[in-house]
Amino acid sequence: MDERDDESLFVALREMWEAADPVPPSLADRMVAAVAVDDLSRDFALLDLLDAPERVSVRATTDANVLHFGGDDGNVLVRVTPHDGVCRLDGWSDPPVLAARLAQQGREWEADVSDAGQFSFEDVARGRSHLRMAVRGADRIREVATPWFEV
Questions:
Q1: What is the predicted pLDDT for the residue at 103?
Q2: For residue 70, which of 54, 58, 75, 80 is within the disulfide window of CB 3.0 to 4.6 Å?
């Protein structure tokens, strides 16, 4: 089976699920509101899926997703790119992070961080994840964390 066969199979599966079990139109807005109301993170509150034309990307055709975490103290973009059953995560932050760790149940990755605050994680397993980052504030270095998200 070549890639064209795989692609046409995935298109057919997506169309079948869209017809049999469509995504409720208000689901994305309700989820964003639930996260905001519950204040699930310490410093970063909102999660937006940017690269997809619709907010709900679980049924999108793109392989990579960009997540945006934002708060009063800054913004973080994380691009999740799947390959060979695992994922690569590339991140950018304003203000630049000094160190970044990605945590999953029982496992943790430490990122390579550039002088500009860009960071990346290789060979990340699929699953519930969250980022912990060290950033320089006005008077001290502090830790910030994202809400849990699915890789």
A1: 93
A2: 75
